[in-house]
Amino acid sequence: MPQYWNREKFAADKTRSAQDSSNKSIVNEARIVSLAMKDDPSNVPLENLPEGATVLAVGSTIDELDIPTLQQQKANVIFVSPGPSKETLAKLIQELDSSLEWIHSRSAGVDAIYTDTLANTPATVTNAKGAFSSTLAEYTLLACSYFAKDLPHLLKNKGRKDWNKYNILELRNATLGIVGYGDIGQAAAKLAKAYGMRVIALRRNPEKTKDDPYCDVVYGNDQLNVLFGESDYILCSAPLTAETKGMIGKEQFDAAKTNAVFINVGRGPIVDEEALVEALKDGRLKGAGLDVFATEPLPKESELWELDNVLLSPHNMDATETFMLESTKFFVNENLPRFLHGELLLNEIDKAAGY
Q1: 315 has catalytic annotation
Q2: Annotated catalytic residue: which of 87, 170, 296, 306?
Q3: Do 36 and 61 fall within a single domain?
Q4: 153 is known as an active-site residue
Q5: Which positions fall inside the D-isomer specific 2-hydroxyacid dehydrogenase NAD-binding domain (predicted)?
Q6: Do 308 and 326 share a domain, yes or no?
Q7: Catalytic residue among 315, 326, 341, 343
Q8: Are residues 204 and 271 located together in one domain of the fold?
Q9: Lower CB density within 10 Å: C or N end of the chain?
Q10: Residue 203: active-site member
Protein backbone atom coordinates (compact mmCIF):
# COMPACT_ATOMS: atom_id res chain seq x y z
CA MET A 1 0.00 0.00 0.00
CA PRO A 2 1.28 3.54 -0.78
CA GLN A 3 2.41 5.59 2.21
CA TYR A 4 2.00 9.34 2.44
CA TRP A 5 3.95 12.12 4.08
CA ASN A 6 2.48 14.71 6.41
CA ARG A 7 4.63 17.50 7.78
CA GLU A 8 3.06 17.54 11.25
CA LYS A 9 3.01 13.76 11.70
CA PHE A 10 6.60 13.30 10.55
CA ALA A 11 7.88 16.17 12.67
CA ALA A 12 6.54 14.35 15.73
CA ASP A 13 7.82 10.89 14.70
CA LYS A 14 11.48 10.49 15.68
CA THR A 15 11.63 6.78 14.80
CA ARG A 16 10.94 6.82 11.07
CA SER A 17 13.37 4.79 9.02
CA ALA A 18 14.42 7.51 6.57
CA GLN A 19 15.50 9.93 9.28
CA ASP A 20 18.78 8.18 10.20
CA SER A 21 20.47 6.51 7.24
CA SER A 22 24.00 6.39 8.65
CA ASN A 23 23.92 2.61 9.21
CA LYS A 24 22.20 1.67 5.96
CA SER A 25 23.86 0.50 2.78
CA ILE A 26 23.32 2.28 -0.52
CA VAL A 27 21.62 -0.01 -3.01
CA ASN A 28 20.64 2.63 -5.62
CA GLU A 29 22.54 5.66 -6.85
CA ALA A 30 20.49 8.79 -7.57
CA ARG A 31 21.69 10.58 -10.70
CA ILE A 32 19.38 13.58 -10.65
CA VAL A 33 18.24 16.04 -13.30
CA SER A 34 16.73 19.10 -11.62
CA LEU A 35 14.09 20.43 -13.98
CA ALA A 36 13.92 23.94 -12.58
CA MET A 37 14.86 27.57 -13.04
CA LYS A 38 18.59 27.78 -12.35
CA ASP A 39 18.22 30.60 -9.81
CA ASP A 40 15.34 28.99 -7.86
CA PRO A 41 16.21 29.74 -4.20
CA SER A 42 13.97 26.98 -2.89
CA ASN A 43 16.28 24.36 -4.38
CA VAL A 44 19.29 25.24 -2.23
CA PRO A 45 18.96 21.93 -0.29
CA LEU A 46 19.94 20.13 -3.52
CA GLU A 47 23.46 21.47 -2.97
CA ASN A 48 23.93 19.19 0.05
CA LEU A 49 22.78 15.70 -0.89
CA PRO A 50 23.35 12.44 0.95
CA GLU A 51 26.03 10.02 -0.18
CA GLY A 52 25.06 8.24 -3.37
CA ALA A 53 23.10 11.19 -4.81
CA THR A 54 24.35 13.69 -7.40
CA VAL A 55 22.71 16.48 -9.37
CA LEU A 56 23.92 16.02 -12.95
CA ALA A 57 22.24 19.07 -14.46
CA VAL A 58 19.83 21.93 -13.81
CA GLY A 59 17.67 23.45 -16.52
CA SER A 60 14.16 24.61 -17.31
CA THR A 61 14.09 23.68 -21.01
CA ILE A 62 15.44 20.83 -23.10
CA ASP A 63 17.83 23.26 -24.79
CA GLU A 64 19.43 24.02 -21.42
CA LEU A 65 20.20 20.33 -20.85
CA ASP A 66 22.93 18.26 -22.52
CA ILE A 67 20.75 15.27 -23.35
CA PRO A 68 23.47 13.03 -24.90
CA THR A 69 25.64 13.46 -21.79
CA LEU A 70 22.68 12.75 -19.47
CA GLN A 71 21.93 9.61 -21.45
CA GLN A 72 25.56 8.54 -21.20
CA GLN A 73 25.51 9.20 -17.43
CA LYS A 74 22.28 7.16 -17.14
CA ALA A 75 20.32 9.86 -15.33
CA ASN A 76 17.64 8.02 -13.38
CA VAL A 77 15.84 10.67 -11.28
CA ILE A 78 13.99 13.85 -12.32
CA PHE A 79 13.21 16.44 -9.65
CA VAL A 80 10.51 18.75 -11.07
CA SER A 81 10.04 22.27 -9.70
CA PRO A 82 7.25 24.69 -10.67
CA GLY A 83 8.08 26.67 -13.80
CA PRO A 84 9.17 24.28 -16.57
CA SER A 85 6.39 23.22 -18.91
CA LYS A 86 4.71 19.83 -19.00
CA GLU A 87 5.94 19.46 -22.57
CA THR A 88 9.55 19.88 -21.40
CA LEU A 89 9.10 17.17 -18.78
CA ALA A 90 7.44 14.86 -21.31
CA LYS A 91 10.35 15.31 -23.72
CA LEU A 92 12.88 14.66 -20.94
CA ILE A 93 11.04 11.49 -19.90
CA GLN A 94 11.24 10.26 -23.49
CA GLU A 95 14.94 11.09 -23.78
CA LEU A 96 15.83 9.32 -20.51
CA ASP A 97 13.41 6.45 -20.97
CA SER A 98 15.96 3.62 -20.77
CA SER A 99 17.47 4.75 -17.44
CA LEU A 100 14.68 6.70 -15.71
CA GLU A 101 13.44 5.21 -12.43
CA TRP A 102 11.82 8.00 -10.44
CA ILE A 103 10.16 11.40 -11.00
CA HIS A 104 9.37 13.66 -8.05
CA SER A 105 7.20 16.78 -8.22
CA ARG A 106 7.94 19.58 -5.77
CA SER A 107 4.25 20.53 -5.98
CA ALA A 108 1.38 18.57 -4.48
CA GLY A 109 -0.84 18.81 -7.55
CA VAL A 110 0.54 17.15 -10.67
CA ASP A 111 -2.02 18.57 -13.12
CA ALA A 112 0.52 21.19 -14.28
CA ILE A 113 2.95 18.47 -15.41
CA TYR A 114 0.51 15.70 -16.32
CA THR A 115 0.68 14.28 -19.86
CA ASP A 116 0.12 10.91 -21.48
CA THR A 117 3.89 10.48 -21.40
CA LEU A 118 3.92 10.89 -17.61
CA ALA A 119 0.92 8.60 -17.23
CA ASN A 120 2.59 5.84 -19.25
CA THR A 121 6.15 5.98 -17.96
CA PRO A 122 7.25 2.89 -16.03
CA ALA A 123 9.12 5.20 -13.62
CA THR A 124 7.68 5.78 -10.15
CA VAL A 125 6.11 9.23 -9.76
CA THR A 126 5.82 10.96 -6.36
CA ASN A 127 4.71 14.40 -5.23
CA ALA A 128 4.78 16.81 -2.27
CA LYS A 129 1.39 15.88 -0.86
CA GLY A 130 1.23 16.76 2.84
CA ALA A 131 3.55 19.76 2.68
CA PHE A 132 0.85 22.40 2.20
CA SER A 133 -2.23 20.99 3.91
CA SER A 134 -2.11 22.74 7.28
CA THR A 135 -2.15 26.30 5.96
CA LEU A 136 -4.97 25.50 3.49
CA ALA A 137 -6.95 23.98 6.35
CA GLU A 138 -6.43 27.20 8.34
CA TYR A 139 -7.68 29.21 5.37
CA THR A 140 -10.77 27.00 5.14
CA LEU A 141 -11.77 27.80 8.71
CA LEU A 142 -10.93 31.45 8.12
CA ALA A 143 -13.35 31.49 5.17
CA CYS A 144 -16.04 29.79 7.26
CA SER A 145 -15.57 32.37 10.04
CA TYR A 146 -15.48 35.25 7.53
CA PHE A 147 -19.07 34.53 6.55
CA ALA A 148 -20.31 33.25 9.92
CA LYS A 149 -19.24 36.47 11.66
CA ASP A 150 -20.04 38.66 8.60
CA LEU A 151 -16.65 40.35 8.52
CA PRO A 152 -17.57 42.59 5.55
CA HIS A 153 -20.32 44.11 7.75
CA LEU A 154 -17.84 44.50 10.60
CA LEU A 155 -15.29 46.29 8.42
CA LYS A 156 -17.93 48.60 6.95
CA ASN A 157 -19.03 49.55 10.47
CA LYS A 158 -15.44 50.32 11.42
CA GLY A 159 -14.93 52.43 8.32
CA ARG A 160 -18.07 54.44 9.14
CA LYS A 161 -17.29 54.55 12.89
CA ASP A 162 -20.73 52.99 13.28
CA TRP A 163 -21.45 51.15 16.58
CA ASN A 164 -24.05 48.97 14.90
CA LYS A 165 -24.55 45.57 16.52
CA TYR A 166 -25.72 42.64 14.44
CA ASN A 167 -26.27 38.92 14.93
CA ILE A 168 -23.59 36.43 13.93
CA LEU A 169 -23.51 32.65 13.44
CA GLU A 170 -21.63 29.93 15.29
CA LEU A 171 -19.56 27.35 13.47
CA ARG A 172 -20.36 24.91 16.27
CA ASN A 173 -22.93 22.37 15.00
CA ALA A 174 -22.67 23.66 11.43
CA THR A 175 -21.83 21.10 8.73
CA LEU A 176 -18.65 21.22 6.65
CA GLY A 177 -18.89 19.16 3.47
CA ILE A 178 -15.56 18.27 1.90
CA VAL A 179 -15.27 17.36 -1.78
CA GLY A 180 -12.01 15.43 -2.07
CA TYR A 181 -11.01 13.94 1.27
CA GLY A 182 -7.27 13.74 0.78
CA ASP A 183 -4.61 15.28 2.98
CA ILE A 184 -5.97 18.83 2.67
CA GLY A 185 -9.53 17.72 3.33
CA GLN A 186 -8.45 15.67 6.33
CA ALA A 187 -6.46 18.60 7.78
CA ALA A 188 -9.53 20.84 7.38
CA ALA A 189 -11.75 18.20 9.01
CA LYS A 190 -9.42 18.05 12.01
CA LEU A 191 -9.71 21.81 12.57
CA ALA A 192 -13.46 21.79 11.92
CA LYS A 193 -13.91 19.17 14.63
CA ALA A 194 -12.03 21.42 17.06
CA TYR A 195 -14.65 24.09 16.27
CA GLY A 196 -17.45 21.61 17.02
CA MET A 197 -18.54 21.21 13.40
CA ARG A 198 -20.09 18.15 11.81
CA VAL A 199 -17.99 16.88 8.91
CA ILE A 200 -19.18 14.98 5.85
CA ALA A 201 -16.95 14.08 2.92
CA LEU A 202 -17.04 12.93 -0.67
CA ARG A 203 -14.37 10.47 -1.75
CA ARG A 204 -13.75 8.30 -4.80
CA ASN A 205 -12.91 5.41 -2.46
CA PRO A 206 -15.11 5.83 0.66
CA GLU A 207 -13.62 2.70 2.24
CA LYS A 208 -10.36 4.61 2.79
CA THR A 209 -12.13 6.75 5.40
CA LYS A 210 -13.16 3.85 7.64
CA ASP A 211 -12.74 4.73 11.35
CA ASP A 212 -11.65 8.31 10.57
CA PRO A 213 -11.97 10.28 13.84
CA TYR A 214 -12.79 13.57 12.11
CA CYS A 215 -15.34 12.55 9.47
CA ASP A 216 -18.91 11.77 10.53
CA VAL A 217 -20.22 10.61 7.14
CA VAL A 218 -18.43 9.71 3.90
CA TYR A 219 -20.18 9.57 0.52
CA GLY A 220 -19.17 8.16 -2.84
CA ASN A 221 -18.86 10.35 -5.94
CA ASP A 222 -22.46 9.63 -6.95
CA GLN A 223 -23.72 11.57 -3.90
CA LEU A 224 -22.21 14.96 -4.67
CA ASN A 225 -25.62 16.68 -4.74
CA VAL A 226 -26.52 15.11 -1.39
CA LEU A 227 -23.38 16.61 0.14
CA PHE A 228 -24.26 20.06 -1.24
CA GLY A 229 -27.76 19.78 0.18
CA GLU A 230 -26.54 18.92 3.68
CA SER A 231 -23.60 21.32 4.02
CA ASP A 232 -23.50 24.82 5.48
CA TYR A 233 -19.93 25.18 4.18
CA ILE A 234 -18.59 23.25 1.20
CA LEU A 235 -14.85 22.82 0.73
CA CYS A 236 -13.48 21.72 -2.64
CA SER A 237 -10.03 20.23 -2.07
CA ALA A 238 -10.05 17.70 -4.89
CA PRO A 239 -7.19 17.36 -7.41
CA LEU A 240 -7.73 18.37 -11.02
CA THR A 241 -8.08 15.29 -13.22
CA ALA A 242 -10.12 14.33 -16.29
CA GLU A 243 -12.69 12.92 -13.86
CA THR A 244 -12.98 16.04 -11.65
CA LYS A 245 -12.81 18.77 -14.31
CA GLY A 246 -16.16 20.58 -14.32
CA MET A 247 -17.68 18.26 -11.70
CA ILE A 248 -19.20 21.18 -9.74
CA GLY A 249 -21.67 23.39 -11.57
CA LYS A 250 -25.26 24.60 -11.80
CA GLU A 251 -26.75 21.25 -10.76
CA GLN A 252 -24.78 21.25 -7.52
CA PHE A 253 -25.46 24.92 -6.75
CA ASP A 254 -29.18 24.30 -7.35
CA ALA A 255 -28.98 21.45 -4.82
CA ALA A 256 -27.08 23.52 -2.24
CA LYS A 257 -28.50 24.16 1.21
CA THR A 258 -29.95 27.65 1.74
CA ASN A 259 -27.21 30.14 2.69
CA ALA A 260 -24.39 27.68 1.97
CA VAL A 261 -20.85 28.99 1.49
CA PHE A 262 -18.57 27.47 -1.17
CA ILE A 263 -14.80 27.34 -0.62
CA ASN A 264 -12.30 26.23 -3.26
CA VAL A 265 -8.63 25.48 -2.54
CA GLY A 266 -8.38 22.60 -5.04
CA ARG A 267 -8.20 23.77 -8.64
CA GLY A 268 -10.29 26.33 -10.51
CA PRO A 269 -11.32 24.17 -13.50
CA ILE A 270 -13.10 21.71 -11.18
CA VAL A 271 -15.84 24.36 -10.96
CA ASP A 272 -18.03 25.86 -13.67
CA GLU A 273 -17.09 29.45 -12.85
CA GLU A 274 -19.98 31.03 -14.77
CA ALA A 275 -22.46 28.88 -12.83
CA LEU A 276 -20.72 29.85 -9.59
CA VAL A 277 -21.02 33.56 -10.39
CA GLU A 278 -24.73 33.22 -11.13
CA ALA A 279 -25.34 31.29 -7.90
CA LEU A 280 -23.55 34.03 -5.94
CA LYS A 281 -25.51 36.78 -7.67
CA ASP A 282 -28.99 35.27 -7.31
CA GLY A 283 -28.60 34.14 -3.70
CA ARG A 284 -28.42 30.38 -4.14
CA LEU A 285 -25.07 30.68 -2.34
CA LYS A 286 -24.47 32.99 0.60
CA GLY A 287 -20.86 33.47 -0.40
CA ALA A 288 -17.61 31.95 -1.62
CA GLY A 289 -14.01 31.82 -0.47
CA LEU A 290 -11.84 31.30 -3.54
CA ASP A 291 -8.10 30.77 -3.74
CA VAL A 292 -8.07 29.13 -7.18
CA PHE A 293 -9.70 30.03 -10.48
CA ALA A 294 -10.33 28.69 -13.97
CA THR A 295 -7.86 31.23 -15.38
CA GLU A 296 -4.95 32.53 -13.31
CA PRO A 297 -4.22 35.35 -12.80
CA LEU A 298 -7.96 36.02 -12.54
CA PRO A 299 -8.88 38.30 -15.50
CA LYS A 300 -9.73 41.85 -14.45
CA GLU A 301 -13.05 41.60 -16.29
CA SER A 302 -14.19 38.67 -14.09
CA GLU A 303 -17.33 39.48 -12.10
CA LEU A 304 -15.81 37.71 -9.10
CA TRP A 305 -13.73 40.85 -8.39
CA GLU A 306 -16.92 42.91 -7.99
CA LEU A 307 -19.07 40.60 -5.86
CA ASP A 308 -19.32 41.65 -2.21
CA ASN A 309 -19.99 38.06 -1.11
CA VAL A 310 -16.66 36.70 -2.40
CA LEU A 311 -13.48 36.34 -0.36
CA LEU A 312 -10.80 36.27 -3.04
CA SER A 313 -7.09 35.45 -2.81
CA PRO A 314 -4.47 35.06 -5.58
CA HIS A 315 -3.76 31.31 -5.19
CA ASN A 316 -1.43 32.06 -2.28
CA MET A 317 -3.12 30.52 0.75
CA ASP A 318 -0.44 27.82 0.86
CA ALA A 319 2.39 30.26 0.14
CA THR A 320 4.24 30.60 3.42
CA GLU A 321 7.73 32.09 3.24
CA THR A 322 9.31 28.62 3.41
CA PHE A 323 6.69 26.34 1.84
CA MET A 324 8.62 25.48 -1.32
CA LEU A 325 11.91 25.20 0.56
CA GLU A 326 10.26 22.70 2.93
CA SER A 327 9.00 20.76 -0.08
CA THR A 328 12.55 20.45 -1.43
CA LYS A 329 13.72 19.34 2.01
CA PHE A 330 11.09 16.59 1.94
CA PHE A 331 12.65 15.29 -1.27
CA VAL A 332 16.22 15.55 0.05
CA ASN A 333 15.70 14.40 3.63
CA GLU A 334 12.82 11.93 3.38
CA ASN A 335 12.30 10.41 -0.05
CA LEU A 336 15.82 10.53 -1.44
CA PRO A 337 17.28 8.41 1.42
CA ARG A 338 14.49 5.91 0.85
CA PHE A 339 15.44 5.63 -2.83
CA LEU A 340 19.13 5.26 -2.02
CA HIS A 341 18.44 2.47 0.49
CA GLY A 342 15.85 0.65 -1.60
CA GLU A 343 12.92 1.53 0.67
CA LEU A 344 9.32 2.37 -0.18
CA LEU A 345 8.98 5.92 -1.50
CA LEU A 346 6.40 8.18 0.10
CA ASN A 347 3.62 9.92 -1.85
CA GLU A 348 3.52 7.69 -4.91
CA ILE A 349 0.76 8.91 -7.20
CA ASP A 350 -1.71 6.83 -9.15
CA LYS A 351 -0.53 7.73 -12.67
CA ALA A 352 -3.76 6.54 -14.26
CA ALA A 353 -5.92 8.64 -11.92
CA GLY A 354 -3.61 11.66 -12.10
CA TYR A 355 -3.06 12.19 -8.37
Answers
A1: yes
A2: 296
A3: yes
A4: no
A5: 149-315
A6: no
A7: 315
A8: yes
A9: N
A10: no
